[in-house]
């Protein structure tokens, strides 16, 4: 059995430099401070976090755990990939027949109808090339123009939040949380049910998870769907809210992806959808469908080229490595030290 003690010690020695209680030092918690005012504030709930924690599974079996693996903590943009899973589930149920179809054709009247937005497809939203423009839940897409994120090799064209000239949908890649929230809103209109309820019922509970799971929206993000007042949830915790989940549940989800959507003989997600999530975007080959890829080793040089990652601010990584039948979850790791952690795990796997 591989010895992961060195990797675990490295992670525990390099906790992200955020306070454990956001109320203790709000200026050092989260990523909203980098936004132009008045958007540089939290709009949804946040809560204290635990220590650096993680889980490693090989061949479907847990072989290591550290920190507080059962504690449900915020996981920031790892939640984006959970939206991709909900889109895949909608596809399997016939609610989203064709990812290449413009969203406006299926869901008129929710923000995709104008001349620029009406050609945007589900695939554009999933690969972050939509160039959607507008205001979602009170926030304009321009707040996220020129966003700089780790693992994006493209330099920004201007200052964060400085409006830039939009390109045709599908022709420009940009990491944009407002557009992700617009995707979440579209999925809510597809399901006509709260997305957290669907995710827990269709994914987490069948995996044996869900303890402490929450997926919360902004305080003012309530919309009417089918005559019901429902909260639309964000695909991250950039402005608060988002997914709180345990490391063990994240590892369960990673295992489901590694296994192509099957769990205990039951198909929970379509295999072809999970395979498509791992296909490189034509204009951003480091990215699939709301997931990060390592095809050329640029993300993590020591991880296998088949590896793919769910990544969230604050040092959250779910690493799926088909080459070694491994799922690795680490949380609250200082991102500057993530290559050292990945290298140590990769060495142990080899």
Automatic annotation (TrEMBL):
It comes from the Bacteria. GO terms for molecular function: hydrolase activity. It holds the Pfam family Beta-lactamase. SUPFAM superfamilies: beta-lactamase/transpeptidase-like (SSF56601). The keyword Transmembrane helix does not apply. PANTHER family: BETA-LACTAMASE-RELATED (PTHR43283), BETA-LACTAMASE-RELATED DOMAIN-CONTAINING PROTEIN (PTHR43283:SF11). This is Serine hydrolase. It comes from Ramlibacter cellulosilyticus. The lineage of its organism: Bacteria, Pseudomonadati, Pseudomonadota, Betaproteobacteria, Burkholderiales.
